[in-house]
Write a structure and sequence with these properties.
The complex is a heterotrimer of chains A (319), B (366) and C (284). Chain A has 14 helices and two strands. Chain A has helices spanning 14-37, 41-62, 80-87, 89-120, 127-139, 142-154, 160-167, 175-178, 180-205, 209-217, 222-249, 254-259, 269-276, 284-313, and strands at residues 64-65, 75-76. Chain A is flat. Chain A starts with 13 loop residues before the first helix and ends in a 6-residue tail after the last helix. With 284 residues, chain C is mainly alpha-helical. Helix content of chain C is 72%, strand content 0%. Chain C contains twelve helices and no strands. Chain C has helices at residues 13-40, 45-48, 61-67, 76-106, 113-125, 129-141, 148-172, 176-184, 189-218, 221-226, 234-240, 249-280. The chains are: A mainly alpha (319), B alpha+beta (366), C mainly alpha (284).
Chain lengths: 319, 366, 284
């Protein structure tokens, strides 16, 4: 932009007028900036204080040797807590449980959710009612979900599954004791499939019909339409589902607490942290180190996730 | 009611190199309907929004009724605007939509109702006052948007492609109604469109924009008969003016067999600029099929009933060029015929760089 | 917009039938555990604690059992009151903080709106377990353990990013020209908000608030760590009905039904809008 002002300016002193205007313009711009920022600040400050500051403390605790019960003075020990973790068989088990639990629950619920969404994305009698039935598991309190499945579905004495197995002549199976991890995964999948289904359904219904019709006119089979048109269209929705699902499922606690109460085959890192600290261990230094491991894993996940999100936000600009 | 003035008004969007509107100077007199026309990206809408206060003016200024409103927020400019998709408040009735501006001004209820009724009467909207916008047809919505603008008797009407969402027939009809309404109310109006027919039929004067620069502002007739440059010549008129690059020698341009002796002023200008080639422009109605002139093969005949346009393919150097000739409605010429055509008058001569050669260039003249 | 075109030409009628039937079967299968839970809540313990049976004499006694007070134990009334106030106040706080923030990200965006939105979302990526120990220590030192206050603050922080995210997508749906039209019609910020923006986003506000209610109502991790003794919420009350002695299945079912009902109803009502706010805001 050039600095030259047009010399066709008004009759009374063009130069002073432009200077006045420039001055006022700067003033207005500054004001506008604050008008835009101000509504954001309370939420931003609150979020920073409540969610960010504790992590700094955690980081600090993780570098110390610090037990609350019995009370011991806090001593700085560097990365010893972390190196100890590597040798800790229980922690390694918990880490493995975390990985298996998150990955399998996300994957299974995503596949099931997509399948169900495809079933629901067609007109049939009672469509709305069936959708309502299907989303209910996601709304149920996780604690209740865990308790109901444990006591009324899996239970070897009164459970529905064993009752069915008995009918076909198979002996009772103590699911929760024999397959603690997979019992929990099943409950998680039951709760998260509806969520995935809703996201995929939103994607399916946002699919422009004309493209589908064009494909049909072009002679594409249902199979070809699904794999070449629908699935690529669903990609961002699948990514969003994976992202949100992973964030929540990596921190599962409630279902573990009520179904197995922990144990090497079913406690993930968050649960193990609880056991080692507030849940009875009171070893805040070591527990903090474990929680930092979860944070780092989440940051890795989040980085992947944010990349996905930034792709999603690319197209829109409210400015 | 008021006159409007743009004064070196410039809008530079953040992160772009070229201003969307570049040092625009434009005077619009009281009661005038001025049309801003141009292709997409020409800056016509931006110019309108700068006047509305919806875009900031980064340099220069805008004036309404002599008042500098460059930094005045939209709500204090006393203007009304009709948006392309009407921007009716979905949850309000037609009456509430039309009365909204008055309500903001604190006009008492009875007075508001009276004025809304009055505007509704003018626009035949009385039966719809209690409806919501979603229960109206496209044409009715357009009228509500108009009603919202006229009810408050602003100093200036701003219209941003207000007819582009109507179907072709309704658009032509509404065009005349709108022009008539504007004349009756006598409110200064700035009207943006990309449709040059709309611009020519409605505007008292038309301002042609391209790439943020004002190309020419003139009454429709002058714009048509004396386009200031190549861009305007090609943009205004449908079908477009024939524009062909031709060689010049000794003050005579030639198009195949046609010799086109240049008028004195053009010849002087060509010599002054040392041009070997110029762009020769002629409108289809100034060409005539006959025995004389240069020849070519008919590629297409567009029959419009009262008249027809014959597209003639002529050799032009190593390439071919399509020339459009207007003929009467009952032509016997068909595709594949070989025809001759000649020039009957009103030729235009341009520097290949764009300038019109027979007059002083007068961009921005008001 | 929907891609369900009903019966596509050439598709066999029975295929369509079979797929509809399959959808029903899957729906019923997914709903079954909840149905079973509700059913068991109306049984005598003896009936619940035997092999599954569909037919029995329904009774409300278990509901009476679980809502009766036992001194020294967490009662229904106390847990419900705790949950009610914690959820209500935290949701109100979330909305008070999130509405202006979302406005600043969508309608009159700050220049770095993308970064700010990322920050809000990224806080959801950090697991609460990473913060729980400091939170416990801070709460203990401020005498906030076992109080409603601590959960109100934390639930507000927990739901705030989600609410900002959802509200922003609802605000984005307000057509820009409408706000411009209101400006030109002479409306100030207040007029624009009350007359134009709010009527359009109101359903979205309601859906967002409902989602916050659901998450806060169901939250267990923070509640059990910070408020195991006092200020305990409904999820803790549900688990308190699990006993190691004697039969508890019917009682637990009744308690679970009571705890689940409010949120399931809210979710049913708001299902369509909730998912639109969650998904559509991100993908357009």
């Amino acid at each position: 932009m050039t600095d030259t002002q047009p010399d066709t300016a008004p009759d009374a002193g063009p130069d002073t007028r432009d200077e006045e205007r420039a001055e006022e313009r700067r003033h207005l711009e500054r004001r506008e900036k604050w008008i835009r920022r101000l509504p954001l600040l309370p939420a931003l400050l609150f979020t920073i204080v409540i969610t960010q500051v504790p992590f700094v403390f955690s980081l600090f605790y993780s570098l110390t040797d610090w037990k609350i019960i019995p009370p011991t003075p806090r001593t700085f020990i560097g990365f010893d807590n972390f190196t100890d973790l590597v040798d800790n068989q229980f922690f390694r088990d918990a880490a493995w449980v975390s990985v298996v639990m998150t990955a399998s629950a996300v994957l299974l619920s995503l596949i099931l959710g997509t399948g169900i969404a495809l079933l629901l994305d067609r007109k049939f009698f009672g469509q709305g009612f069936v959708r309502t039935l299907l989303i209910t598991p996601f709304l149920v309190m996780p604690v209740v979900a865990g308790l109901v499945w444990k006591n009324q579905v899996f239970s070897s004495q009164y459970g529905v599954i064993n009752w069915l197995l008995n009918l076909v002549g198979i002996d009772n199976v103590e699911f929760v004791t024999r397959y603690p991890l997979w019992s929990i995964v099943i409950v998680l999948v039951w709760e998260w499939t509806p969520f995935m289904m809703l996201i995929i359904l939103a994607g399916l219904q946002g699919q422009p019909t004309d493209v589908l019709e064009a494909a049909r006119v072009d002679g594409a089979t249902n199979r070809a339409i699904f794999f070449q048109i629908t699935l690529p269209h669903l990609k961002p929705y699948l990514e969003l589902g994976t992202l949100l699902g992973s964030i929540y499922l990596i921190q599962v606690f409630d279902q573990i607490e009520v179904i197995t109460g922990g144990g090497p085959d079913s406690s993930n890192i968050p649960f193990f942290v609880f056991q080692r600290s507030i849940g009875g261990g009171w070893d805040f230094g070591a527990a903090s180190a474990m929680s930092i491991v979860v944070v780092i894993a989440s940051i890795v996940l989040a980085n992947l996730g944010l990349r996905v999100l930034s792709g999603l936000l690319e197209g829109e600009d409210p400015a | 009611m008021a006159e409007v003035r743009y004064e070196g008004a410039t809008r530079l969007y953040e992160g772009t190199e070229e201003p969307a509107v570049n040092a625009l100077d434009l005077d619009i007199v009281d009661g005038e309907l001025l049309v801003l026309v141009g292709p997409s990206g020409s800056g016509k809408s931006t110019a309108l929004r700068m006047l509305a206060g919806l875009e900031s003016v980064d340099q220069g200024g805008v004036y309404i009724g002599g008042r500098d409103v460059t930094l005045v927020p939209p709500k204090d400019r006393d203007i009304a605007m009709v948006f392309q998709n009407y921007a009716l408040y979905p949850q309000m009735t037609v009456a509430a939509n039309m009365g909204f501006a008055l309500k903001q001004q604190g006009v008492p209820k009875e007075e508001r109702v009276r004025q809304v009724r009055e505007a509704a009467r003018i626009l035949d909207l009385e039966p719809y006052l209690d409806r919501k916008p979603k229960n109206l047809s496209g044409g009715q919505r357009q009228r509500v948007a108009m009603g919202r603008a006229i009810v408050r008797r602003p100093q200036v009407f701003l219209m941003d492609e207000p007819l582009s969402n109507l179907d072709a027939k309704l658009r032509v009809q509404t065009r005349t109604e709108l022009a008539d309404l504007q004349a009756r109310l006598g409110v200064t109006t700035v009207y943006v469109t990309h449709d040059q027919v709309e611009a020519m039929t409605m505007g008292h004067r038309v301002a042609v924009l391209k790439d943020g620069f004002l190309q020419q502002v003139a009454a429709p007739k002058e714009l048509y008969s004396r386009p200031a440059n190549l861009f305007v010549a090609g943009f205004i008129g449908s079908p477009a003016m024939n524009l062909i690059t031709v060689p010049v020698e000794d003050g005579v341009a030639s198009l195949n067999d046609l010799s086109l002796p240049l008028p004195d002023d053009v010849r002087a200008e060509v010599n002054r600029r040392g041009l070997k080639e110029i762009v020769f422009g002629v409108r289809p109605e100034h060409l005539e099929l006959g025995q004389e002139g240069t020849s070519g093969e008919v590629a297409v005949v567009e029959e419009l009933g009262s008249e027809a346009y014959v597209h003639v393919r002529i050799a032009h150097g190593a390439e071919t060029e399509l020339i459009v000739v207007r003929v009467g409605g009952e032509t016997s010429v068909t595709r594949g015929d070989f025809v001759n055509f000649g020039v009957t008058g009103a030729n235009h001569y341009f520097d290949p760089d764009g300038d019109r050669l027979d007059a002083k260039p007068v961009p921005g003249a008001g | 917009m929907s891609s369900d075109t009903g019966l596509v030409v050439g598709q066999k009628r029975w295929t369509s039938w079979a797929l509809g039937l399959l959808a029903w079967a899957v729906g019923l299968l997914f709903f079954f555990p909840i149905f079973w839970m509700v059913l068991n809540g109306f049984k005598e313990e003896i009936d619940a604690n035997s092999s599954p049976q569909l037919f029995f004499d329904p009774t409300l006694d278990r509901y009476r059992d679980v809502t009766s007070e036992t001194p020294g134990l967490l009662g229904f009334k106390e847990a419900f009151a705790n949950s009610f106030w914690i959820v209500l106040i935290s949701t109100i706080l979330v909305m008070i903080l999130a509405v202006p923030a979302a406005y600043s990200l969508a309608i009159r965006p700050v220049r770095k709106w993308r970064d700010v939105l990322f920050f809000f979302i990224s806080t959801k990526f950090l697991p609460i377990v990473g913060a729980i120990l400091p939170l416990w220590i801070i709460a203990r030192d401020l005498d906030l353990l076992n109080t409603r206050t601590v959960l109100i603050i934390l639930y507000t922080a927990m739901n705030l990013p989600l609410a900002v995210w959802m509200l922003r997508s609802f605000f984005m749906e307000v057509p820009r020209e409408l706000i411009e039209a209101a400006q030109i019609d002479g409306a100030g910020l207040r007029g624009q908000l009350t007359s134009v923006v709010m009527p359009i986003v109101a359903p979205g506000l309601a859906a967002t608030a409902l989602l916050c209610v659901i998450f806060a109502w169901n939250e267990f991790f923070l509640a059990v760590q910070l408020n195991p003794v006092d200020g305990s919420t409904m999820p803790i009350w549900v688990t308190s009905n699990v006993s190691t002695r004697g039969n508890f299945l019917a009682k637990l079912s009744a308690a679970s039904t009571l705890a689940t009902l409010p949120v399931v109803l809210a979710g049913w009502v708001a299902q369509k809008r909730m998912i639109r706010g969650l998904a559509m805001g991100a993908i357009k």
